[in-house]
Amino acid sequence: MRVGFIGLGSQGAPMARRIAAAGHPTTLWARRSETLAALADTGAAVAESPAALAAASNLVCLCVVGDADVAQVVEGAEGVLSGLTSGGIIAIHSTVHPDTCREIALLAAQQGVQIVDAPVSGGGRAAAEGRLLVMVGGETDAVDRCRPVFDSYAGRVEHLGALGAGQVAKLLNNLLFTANLATAASTFTLGKELGIDPQRLGAILSDGTANSFALSTIAPLGGSLEVLAAHADGLLRKDVGLIGDLATRAAAQRGPVVTAAEAALALMSALH
């Protein structure tokens, strides 16, 4: 499988590095030359445009930030679809609205290209260590063709159903993570008011049944959301908004998890 990779951020860069290290001929594209320079030792080729990258690839992996970014690199005269030939696959690792994947799939189908949505969870360190969770939606044949590439950076690849299913699962994951941030932060606040040192409380909770990824994220910070507010507020707000839209359209019960996630976002907004 010849692989093109776009979106060389803190998570995408180690993913691309592991793909190249696994022996897949790899082509990269990025707007900033310094991003590409950091991967010069991988032996990956560098393309002048998304279209040129796609022309050299059977599979194009996208790990850009959001819906507009995905559409921008896929569509247009210099976009991925203008260079990818029939039989090619685009794997959308970005966390986006399922409808974005479906809309791109309609365009792609006109030239015999398949779309797989494959958002990931775990962060840059898990990517570098090959431990990412990959949540996949799409046709079984396309997913099976992608698996050897996904396996290069994943600890688990889970095919959840039709196109869009991976995005729904990832959005639910991020919703619960955000809700857990609210409950964890409020627990630290209550503990402090009751006279328990936040650092010692964090150490205790991390070893107890109350532990969670959200708790372990803020425990070293004494329960503060300040760092997340500075670096992740926008992304979490995007994802909570997307899953809220899906719930509204499906007339699904939003429940306490959405209320808790919105509370976390309010706490982070207050720190700006």
Automatic annotation (TrEMBL):
Annotated protein name in UniProt: NAD(P)-dependent oxidoreductase
Pfam families, per database record: NAD_binding_11, NAD_binding_2
EC number: 1.1.-.-
Residue ranges of every copy of the 3-hydroxyisobutyrate dehydrogenase-like NAD-binding domain listed in the record: 164-265
Oxidoreductase listed as a keyword: yes
Keywords for the protein's UniProt record, in alphabetical order: NAD, Oxidoreductase
6-phosphogluconate dehydrogenase NADP-binding domain boundaries: 2-161
Record PROSITE patterns: 3_HYDROXYISOBUT_DH
InterPro entries for the chain: 3-OH-isobutyrate_DH-rel_CS, 6-PGluconate_DH-like_C_sf, 6PGD_dom2, 6PGDH_NADP-bd, HIBADH-like_NADP-bd, HIBADH-related, NAD(P)-bd_dom_sf
Similarity-based family: Belongs to the HIBADH-related family.
Gene Ontology MF terms: oxidoreductase activity
Organism: Nocardia fusca
Superkingdom assignment: Bacteria
